[in-house]
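Suppose you are handed a protein chain with no further information: no name, no annotation, nothing but its sequence. What can you learn? This example shows the usual starting point.
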Amino acid sequence: MKKQYQLSEFQFYDGEEFITFNLIDINTEKKEITVAVTDRGHISVRTFDLLEDRGRLYFEYGIGFNHIDVNDFEEVNQ
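A reasonable first move is to predict its three-dimensional structure. Written in structure tokens, the prediction is:
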């Protein structure tokens, strides 16, 4: 069963602040993921390379190339 990612978000703590990623689109054919990133009060829409390791999809964020695992995104309750 394919996981539903609509209205999904993930918060990542970079050691100083929480960064919020809101999932917009995953394109497995192009191997890209598009997310809205809220980082230190700035909101931007970014597209990252979608990578895979042992069947798990992730993208890398920040100067430390932190792995953001797509399976860690959770549905947002409205």
